[in-house]
Amino acid sequence: MKIICFVMIVTTMVGDAAKSEIRSPISVCELLENRLKYDGQIVAVRGVVEGSTEGAALIGDHCLRPIVTQGYTWPNAISLSYDLSLDSPHTVNFTRNFRQIDRIDREARRIKQKYPDVKIAYTYVGLFETRAKLGQATNLTGEFVPAGFGHLGACPAQLVIQTVRDPRVQSSK
Question: Which top CATH class is 25-169?
Answer without folding.
Answer: mainly beta
